[in-house]
Each structure stands twice: as structure tokens, then as C-alpha cells.
Amino acid sequence: MVREEILRWLLETDSARLQELWRRADEVRRHHVGDAVHLRGLVEFSNRCVRQCGYCGMRAGNSKLPRYRMTSDEILASARLAHDLGYGTLVLQSGEDPSMDPEWLAAVVRKITTTMPLAVTLSVGEWPPEALQLWREGGADRYLLRFETADEDLLRRIHPPLPGRPWSRFEILRSLGDLGYEVGSGILIGVPGQTFGELARCIELLRELELDMIGSGPFIPHPETPLGRSPVHFSSLEGGYGAGGLSARDQVPPDDIMTYKVLALARIVRPYANIPATTALATLDRASGYEKGLQRGANVIMPNVTPVRYRSLYHVYPGKVSSAPSDDTYYADIKARIEALGRTVGVGPGSSARWSGAAASCP
Ligand code: SAH
Q1: For 344, phi and psi rounded to 5 degrees?
Q2: Is the CB of residue 188 below 6 angstroms from any atom belonging to ligand 1?
Q3: What secondary structure does DSSP assign to 69-95, as a single string?
Q4: Cβ(186) to ligand 1 under 6 A?
Q5: Mind listing the pLDDT tens digit for each residue in 170-200?
Q6: Does the predicted model carry a pTM greater than 0.90?
Q7: Domain-wise residue ranges, the chain
Q8: 261: closest CA among 281, 241, 243?
Q9: Please, what CATH class does the domain formed by 3-343 belong to?
Q10: Does the beta carbon of 251 lie inside 6 Å of ligand 1?
């Protein structure tokens, strides 16, 4: 799929024609990764962060947010819960916290992978190659680092670089595969300043980076952030979204339809990738975000297994669906929703086809 076609789909507003995109993504999904929906237990183990991302409620500048880091025993207990629920993967996610000792995290990963048959995914921000290698040697299988936007100038504005850090997100992403990780990345859809042309470029980048995992979600404004404080007008930078004036230069709206389009296009450009219907999508479309996501390209859901007392503190955006659910119903509900679609709950680690040998390369 070339950029013009991607752009046409991103700009498409006719719901009948969009059915064609959903159908095509669903077919590509079924053909390449089948009907299994893999569940990844998500542990948000720390909200400490030194970054000043303009979009994220955990930014260092948000002094209203109490900070926490779970102990290794607490993380182990969450891993045990994920394992007992039948999940094959644990995702350890946190803010970016250089005061965390990489050796400590390596020991946590080693403890998990040597005591439970769980694949481990890390999502802990930008770290030097030595730390990434240490964790890989400790048994981490996968690494998630969203590029958020393909426009490096925009990225610098919304995700300011730290002084004295020679490595960039894109460099890190390109190095992870060499270290032996399955590599995941994705897009913050509709972040202020993102245009349709840039979003089309992001979709191409998903393909160029040869990603094993693609997690993208809608930008949800957080009131304690620069991008969430003042009313941001998503209608457009010029012309008007839906008013006949759409062009590649218009601001992308961070809505559910745009998120489904990105999911579907991601599936089409990376047919074998593991693609979650993300929590941010389910937050925006509570009634059917998971279902529609799974029917428009996704094959993964990441249920939250963080202890409930910490969930509301992992405050990247407001209103997160998993902030304080009643646990019994929450986990059972996700499985029931998968089965109601005629899909099955995946068994085992659900590795990327590239690593499990099912596919050497993707178109
Ligand atoms: N520190 C890690 C993990 C960050 S949280 C890292 O930087 O990789 C994971 C993702 O949450 C981010 O990559 C970003 O895409 C998303 N996120 C942050 N703020 C958000 C917001 N306001 N709305 C929606 N998603 C957001």
C-alpha cells in the first residue's frame, strides 16, 4: 500500500467505504495470525519519570501526582496473577526513571522467567544500549517503545530530549532487533500538531521498522499537561474536518474512527504483527472499543494486572478503563468478550511470527 492510498483511507469519511477497509484488515488478520487473541498481563510498576512529555500525565512536571515504584515481590505477585489467569506474556511498563538500577530490573525479569513460563515485554522508555542488553540477557523477550509521531521536529516539541543523551528513539528502535528483542512501537494518534500527511508517514514507518508489535492509541488530553490544559482545537489547522476542506495538512482528530483506521492500516502493512486493541481505545469507546478493534485488525488485549491501589496513580491520561475495575468481573469479562466474537483466547507466549518461524518476512 503506497502513501497516497494510506492517505486516502485516513481521509475517508464514507462509512460504507470504510466497511471495505475493516473487512480487508480483518481478512488479513485472520489469514496471517488466525483467530487467537493473545492476552498480555500489564504491570504498570512505576510512575516515576524524568521526562517532560507534553501529552503525558506522568511527566516530571506534574507535582500533583504521588509517585510509586512497586517492589520486586509485588511485581512477582502480579506476574503470578497473570500466569494464574492463563496469560503467556507479562508486560512491565513504567515512566522513565534513571534512578532505577538496571541490575534490579534484570533480576526481576530473571526471577519471573525462571519461575514461570511467561514471555516478558519491557516498556520503560529510552535507555542506553548496555541496559537494553543487560535486560535481554536477563531474559526479556520484547521491547515496546512508541515513536509516537514520525515527524522528528514534532516529537522534539512534545517529547523534549534530555540533555546529554546521545541516543534517539529511532536509533533505539533500530538497535533492539540486533539485541534479539521482538520490537514494538506505535503512534499517539491525533496528538496536537499531527497532520494527515504525517500520520500516513507514520503508517509507512510501521512497515519500514519491520515491527513485530504495533500498539497505537488515541491521544486523550490530560489536564495537568501542556497539551491538555488549554482547549486544543482538533477540527483542523486550516479548512475543517468533515466540512469538505480536508487536506493532508489538517490536524488529525484523536477519535475512535481514526484509531480504527490506524489499526486496520497497521494490519495491512504488517500482516504478521501482534497488534493490541489498546486501553486508550477502550477508554474512548467503552462499549465496543475492544470488539471493534479486534474486528478491524487487532489480535491482542493487554489486561491490567497492576495491584488496584496503584492503578489510578499510573495516570498517563484521565478516565482509563482499567483504573479500578472489580477484578473478578474485569478479567472474566475480557475473555467473554473475545469468545462472543467467535474468537479464541490465545495459549502460550504468542510470539511474533518472525520469531516463531511461521514467517520469514512480511510484504
Ligand atoms: N515511559 C514509557 C512508557 C510510557 S506510557 C515510554 O515512554 O515508552 C506508554 C504510552 O502511553 C506512551 O508511549 C504514549 O503513547 C501513551 N500516552 C501518554 N500520554 C497519553 C495521552 N495523554 N493519551 C493517550 N496516550 C498517551
Answers
A1: -115, 155
A2: yes
A3: B--HHHHHHHHHHHHHTT-SEEEEEE-
A4: no
A5: 999 999 999 999 999 999 999 999 999 999 9
A6: yes
A7: 3-343
A8: 281
A9: alpha beta
A10: no
